[in-house]
Each structure stands twice: as structure tokens, then as C-alpha cells.
Amino acid sequence: MAECVRTTLNPSHFLLHSTKTPTQNPFFSSISSFEAKPNARKYPKISLSVMSSQNQSQGQTQVPSLDALLNSGRKEEVFASIKASLYNCLSETNLQLTVPGLKSKTRGKVRDIYDSGDYLVLVTTDRQSAFDRILASIPFKGQVLNETSLWWFNRTRHMIPSAVLSVPDKNVTIAKKCSVFPVEFVVRGFVTGSTETSLWTVYKNGVRNYCGNVLPNGLVKNQKLTANILTPTTKAEDHDVPVTPDEIIERGLMTQDEFDEAREKALSLFEYGQRVALERGLILVDTKYEFGKSSDGSILLIDEVHTPDSSRYWISNSYEERFQNGLEPENIDKEFLRLWFRENCNPYEDKVLPDAPEELVCELAWRYIFLYETITKSRFEMQPMGEPIHDRISRNVSSALSSLQ
């Protein structure tokens, strides 16, 4: 039996529990809770191109509002499975104890990575990270991320090969070994965000040259940039550090040719992702990519692609009006979890964090699944309760590695 942890919402292995009672969750009941006070300032008009003809009728989009989407009949069905799995999340694995051939384990923020000699086994857990720490465990999150990435990997093969060899389990990917570049390629299309390295945070603090990008004065939060930009970061152990392209080359993190190719791929992938998202009534706001170099010298796309963990998504048909009125966009990513923690604690400095409310955890799990179904246009098949997750993963990984030998 693989050694995995059946977790509570905030496993003590990751979080120090607070004795404080969190304030009422202001971000759960309705998206309107996110609204900023209307600003009298006149905001620049935004042009969102590439609207799909299937989403247009007599000049107006037919995409329903976020409230309608998130409270559809499907939600009740999914919520029942989410609530039944609240205490059966995959928060930790130790497959090296049960799967023959696994030599070592590296624990990332979300993924547990195992070295099998010729391959890497990547287990995507249900851990929810933000502010460089684990905040909670979200039912089915690992499965959503793994399957969403696979969908995008398959649809971007014409642009760049990936390291994926097989997907033997809903939470597992077996990948080729490659030399991973210690740089995250963060691509942004809008001035937004709430973390210390987000574009809006640094911009409102007066930064006008960020990661080699010169930004004009007068930008406002959530404004669309005139062109997508790359804001790379180094993959530090505890937190990501913004870096310029010149610094990447000077530090020897990548050669000029490697960086140029990865930058071109990142911008192309993002533009493609924006087109696909917009056809489905969504705006891909920003995302991050990671790349590696195979033994034959080719650059591979690794880690994850356009998932709700690595990307920010907004609803397209309400964006313009809300922006003009100084309101926050309707979003279906993990931003509202970040906002809740920022409202209730200092997630960067507090040693003890409040527990994420159960209803917020359920809502986030539902939104992850909703985003998967919206992007892929396919039904998310939730693993039924029965066989423990760790047993299933151990069995499937063992079988897959045996067949690859």
C-alpha cells in the first residue's frame, strides 16, 4: 500500500492551525463580493479580438454570466462528489516505499516527483499553493490539473513537443528525463494580480521597467496590455524572483539561443491559449510555462499547461462593462482563495493561518472542474469512492513502469 495521507482541509503537516475564528467569508456567496467600489475615473476602452462566431449573435455574445454558469444544474451533482471527498484528498505520497524502481522523491508545491532511472513519475496532488506555501487541499484538484494539462499538451504538439510519455493514472504523468531550465516563463496580457510579484502589485508601487518590459504611466488595474509580455522568474526554493532576459543569460541560466526559442514558444502558446479560451467565453489573462532540454538538444514543454493553477481566467462577456465601472472581473480561477487569505491574515508572514472554510474549498473544487469542462468541452469523470487513492496510484504506476521496461 502506498503511503499517502488522507487529509483534512488544512493538514497539520503543512499548516499550523489557528485558534482564531476566521471572519465570515465575504468571497464565497456571490461574485459580487469581489467588487471594488465604482471609480469615477474614465477607463480606456478595451478591444478583445478573436471572438468566435459561435459565441456571437447580432453583435452580442451569448455566453451566460458567471453566476449562471457556476450555479447550473451540473453544480449540484458535482458538489455531492466534492463534499464526499473532502477528507479523502491526496496531500502526500511516498510511492518510493511501495513501487519497485523508484529511487528518490522530490516534493514540489503541488507535485511529488519520483526518479525511476530512465523516467520521472509526476504525481499531481490536491495541495493548493499560493503565497509560496500550502493553503489547503482541494478535492479532485490533482486530477483536474493532470487531465487539463494532457488536453493542452495534445493540442499544442504542432507548436512544441512535450516530455509526456504516458498517463497511467488520473493523477500521474510519466515523463522523459530532461535538463530543466531554472526559469519560469510567465506571460501576461493584463495588468492585474494580488501577489508580491504580480504585475499590478509592482506597477502600483511605482515600477515602470519590469523584467525588461517598459510600462507606460497611467495604466489601471485589470487593463489589457497593448501586447502580451514576458515576465520571467527564477525558480528559487522558497519563492519566485523576477528576472530580466539579460540577467538570465548573464547568470548562465540559459544560452541566448535557448532563451530566444523558449520565449518565442511561450508567447505563441499563450496567444493560442487566448484564442481557444475566447472561443469558449473565457479570457486567458496570464499563465506560466516551464521548459526543459532533452538529450538530443530539443526544447520540451514540461510541468503543466493553461491549468487553473498556473493561469488566470476571466469571463469574457462581462469584462468590458465591469472594467469601465471599476469592478473586478468575474474570475473562475484561484484568485478568490488568495483574496480570502489576504483578507483574513498576512499569508506571507503569519506563521499560523486560518483554516480555509469548507464552503470555500468546495466552491474552488467546483470551479476547477467547471473550468476543465468549459475548456475541453468534455465531462469530468470523478473517481468514485472505494479503492483508496494511494492504492490506485501505486498499482497503476507499478504496472506502467513494468510495461516501459
TrEMBL record:
Q: In which pathway does it act?
A: Purine metabolism; IMP biosynthesis via de novo pathway; 5-amino-1-(5-phospho-D-ribosyl)imidazole-4-carboxamide from 5-amino-1-(5-phospho-D-ribosyl)imidazole-4-carboxylate: step 1/2
Fetch the Gene3D superfamilies from UniProt. ATP-grasp fold, B domain (3.30.470.20), Phosphorylase Kinase, domain 1 (3.30.200.20)
Asked if the record carries the keyword Repressor, the reply is no
Q: SAICAR synthetase/ADE2 N-terminal domain spans which residues?
A: 106-352
Per the record, the domain of life is Eukaryota
Q: What is its EC number?
A: 6.3.2.6
Q: Keyword ATP-binding: yes or no?
A: yes
Q: What GO CC terms are in its UniProt record? A: chloroplast stroma
Q: What is the protein name stated in its UniProt record? A: Phosphoribosylaminoimidazole-succinocarboxamide synthase, chloroplastic
